[in-house]
Amino acid sequence: MAYAPQPTASHYIGGVYVEDTGGDAIPVIFAATGETIATVHAGTPAIVERALAAATDAQAEWAAMTGRMRGRILTRAAQIIRERNRELSELETLDTGKPLQETLVADATSGADALEYFGGLAATLTGEHIQLGEDWVYTRREALGVCVGIGAWNYPTQIACWKAAPALACGNTMVFKPSETTPLCALKIAEILTEAGAPPGVFNVVQGMGAVGAQLVTDPRVAKVSLTGSVPTGKRVYAAAAAEMKHVTMELGGKSPMLVFEDADIENAVGGAILGNFYSSGQVCSNGTRVFVHRAIKEAFLDRLAARLSDAVIGDPRDEAVNFGPMVSERQMQTVLGYIEKGLAEGARLVTGGTRLDRDGWFVTPTVFADVTDDMTIAREEIFGPVMAVLDFDDEAEAIARANDTPYGLSAGVFTRDLARAHRVIAQLRAGTCFINSYNDAPVEAPFGGVKMSGVGRENSRAALEHYSQVKSVYVRMGDLEAPF
Ligand code: NDP
């Protein structure tokens, strides 16, 4: 496979690529081979300043355009993304190591969905009219101003679009900082937005590590911060934003439960557990990594799971026949191997996997532990890798209580043929994004986000518009004004 065309510089500011080699070099390593495929430079303070100034300068004019005009640009960007899906998917595969088989259908396409959806909604942003006798109030739905987006490394194209699309639809501008691990894809989205007609400065990309993120978050010109990342980073960023009373959206981690009842269709439940644990080599925030299986069907479930996992095609993610690729980085692989060791040391039964592949790159085999108990580390902490913990249960109330016994609350799933039970159980699970007889679907039309430590606010759907705009109410007096003196 020829390598996809790469961005031509580290940053994208004011509608053009910008380089400043004064910032620390950040190597981009292809996870399947360990090769360095590109180098970008972290933003220096001057670069960050330039990006914030560009976003600030562009905002009023962008917000003054009609929603329909903004929407048309976003929709055009969506169309360009679809036309270049292959090239963008190849870049996503190089950036993350995820199989091309996945990226061709899940990354640029999901970004295009968001731009298309919010492009369509941009013209529908309105206020309301409230009649008060002769007088009246009208409300204006206004942009927040300059927004900062900070991304994790697992979905670099999708995260950039999920943040940019609603922000730009509402008349905000954005400075986006990708994860240092996957810096390439967001630059292409910036380039495409310019090509689609977005004025310079509307969407800017600055590279860097946490320090650049922190500089962006604390800048007084920034009205809102949207982070996709881990809970510890979320706490730091939320606290920094709160000091200046900035708006936030926090999409953080999880340790989500999947409940498989005794009447479930086992093939579907196994399919859900595979999608919810091994897609993107398990590097998905909403994964259902605690799979509670009713004791009566547990062995049948494990047998089918092991059989189906033996069909996984592990290898170079550029090969379209491959459906399971490497971990994003050596560091993430070491973290995952560390959790596998803890699972073994704490007495979980290894059903399949559990090893690093003897080849270049950061490959860990799809791993399933059974006989996991609630207190084991692998049942409590987010691993962010291909490690599934299967736990037994006997009755519904017990399963719900144990499923909820976590500080996280991103997702939850239920597999059963009894739909009354499905709805009853889902209503009691404390999670923001739930599934019945399915797992990990994320259509742009549906709100996505977590409760408890998994986050604040929602991405996607009309709900996201609320998080990227604010309401001004205007009282209009029609007669004379009386005053006490
Ligand atoms: P991190 O929390 O380590 O980093 C997230 C982003 O924040 C990175 O761009 C990072 O920069 C940046 N950052 C780090 N410190 C600061 C700071 N003090 N101020 C501002 N920005 C900062 O997450 P990962 O990249 O390791 O991603 C994995 C995590 O993301 C998992 O916990 C996962 O659950 C979560 N996630 C949540 C999703 C959701 O929608 N709920 C979706 C996908 C992932 P850098 O890395 O360059 O240092």
Strand-helix topology:
Layout: E1 11-13, E2 16-18, E3 25-29, E4 36-41, H1 45-64, H2 67-83, H3 85-96, H4 100-106, H5 108-121, E5 129-132, E6 135-143, E7 146-150, H6 156-169, E8 173-177, H7 185-195, E9 203-205, H8 210-218, E10 222-228, H9 231-243, E11 247-251, E12 257-260, H10 266-278, E13 290-294, H11 298-309, H12 330-345, E14 349-352, E15 367-370, H13 377-380, E16 387-393, H14 396-404, E17 411-415, H15 419-428, E18 433-436, E19 455-456, H16 463-467, E20 469-476
Parallel strand pairs: 7-8, 7-10, 8-9, 10-11, 12-13, 12-17, 13-16, 15-16, 17-18
Antiparallel strand pairs: 1-2, 3-4, 5-6, 6-20, 11-19, 14-15
Bound molecules: NADPH dihydro-nicotinamide-adenine-dinucleotide phosphate.
Structure description:
By secondary structure, the protein is α/β, with parallel strands linked by helices. It has 16 helices and 20 strands. β12 (257-260), α10 (266-278) and β13 (290-294) form a beta-alpha-beta unit. It starts with 10 loop residues before the first strand and ends in a 9-residue tail after the last strand. Bound molecules: NADPH dihydro-nicotinamide-adenine-dinucleotide phosphate. The site of NADPH dihydro-nicotinamide-adenine-dinucleotide phosphate has 30 residues, from α8, β10 and α9. NADPH dihydro-nicotinamide-adenine-dinucleotide phosphate is lined by residues 150-154, 177, 179-180, 209-210, 213-214, 217, 227-230, 233, 236-237, 251-254, 285, 382, 384, 410, 450, 455.
